[in-house]
Write a structure and sequence with these properties.
The complex is a heterodimer of chains A (177) and B (120). Chain A is mostly helical. In chain A, 53% of the residues lie in helices and 6% in strands. Helices cover 41% and strands 22% of the residues of chain B.
Chain lengths: 177, 120
């Protein structure tokens, strides 16, 4: 099962404690953490990672049931998710130039956003495949393609997020990368 | 794969372990979605499990062997009705599904490592 990020990436560390120890008030320390969490592309990357992680669960479920009679593969449409994400990015850009601030991602029929930013997928069954004699609607090639594409999306998002966090870490430690 | 192997291995088995005439019954494996053994309620919805390993009680073919001591009054001996070619096709299909699952597990492992590198 995929590992998803927690409620806020940097909140899981000792940052608030360290900032309070440096003499900052707790609410001010949490404000700094929120700004770091929502700086630049980080909220977008976090959403991409959450979506790709949740979709990976569906794809692996489909692969596990390749030989299951009457099984209908489940999936969500990544293109519609990306279109919604693009809309959210545009809205954020219109509000503050896209430099900082939270990402308002509205729930769709397939992707539901819970409190804390957690995503719940409501998948649909695909209808474009050939129905096999065991009434399984599998398409191994298409499923493996979806697996690789989704993993690539996940990798791009994690690599970009890592470069952002490395930059932050370097800034905090006053080092030049 | 174990069930298919057992079917192929026993394609000509007409006696049971006690030596009595009791042709081997072809085993049929049935899968069902979900994993009932998972402790996590969400995990129980995903994955796959073996729902049952059934026997095909009617999978008997009669072979004319009048000289056999197991022949009936008409000279026919009951054999398991197992088609080795069909079992080979099932084995190839199972091997293909196994490979796909290994790739999925490898991909999951890679994704986990990528997330862990974020905090490393």
């Amino acid at each position: 099962m995929p590992v998803l990020l927690g409620e806020g990436f940097l909140e899981t560390g000792r940052m608030p404690v360290l900032l309070v120890a440096c003499g900052l008030r707790r609410d001010r320390a949490m404000g700094i953490i929120d700004q770091l969490n929502s700086a630049g592309a980080m909220p977008v990357l976090e959403k991409m990672i959450r979506f790709a992680g949740a979709r990976h669960t569906l794809i692996t479920h489909n692969i596990a049931n390749l030989e299951t009679p009457n099984f209908q593969p489940l999936d969500v449409d990544p293109a519609s998710f990306q279109a919604k994400l693009a809309e959210a990015v545009d809205d954020r850009r219109n509000v503050n130039g896209g430099v900082s601030g939270g990402l308002e991602f509205a729930s769709t029929r397939e992707v539901e956003v819970l409190s804390g930013g957690r995503l719940v997928l409501n998948p649909r069954t695909s209808s474009g495949n050939i129905l096999m004699h065991d009434r399984n609607n599998r398409d191994l090639e298409r499923t493996m393609q979806a697996l690789v594409e989704n993993a690539s999306m996940f990798r791009v998002a994690t690599d970009l997020l890592r470069s952002r966090t490395t930059m932050l870490r370097n800034a905090m430690s006053e080092r030049v990368a | 794969m174990a069930v298919i192997s057992a079917n192929i291995a026993n394609a000509d088995t007409i006696l049971d372990s006690s030596g009595n005439l009791n042709p081997y019954k072809k085993r049929i494996l049935n899968f069902a979605p979900g994993d009932p053994s998972s402790a996590d309620p969400v995990g129980r919805q995903f994955g796959v499990h073996v729902s049952e390993i059934g026997k095909d009680e009617n999978a008997i073919r009669l072979k004319y062997e009048p000289g056999s001591k197991y022949a009936d009054e008409n000279g026919y001996v009951p054999y398991p009705d197992i088609n080795p070619q069909l079992e080979q096709i099932n084995a190839m299909s199972a091997a293909r599904a196994y490979e796909a699952n290994v790739v999925a597990a490898e991909t999951t492992k890679t994704m986990m490592a990528q997330v862990l590198r974020l905090i490393g």
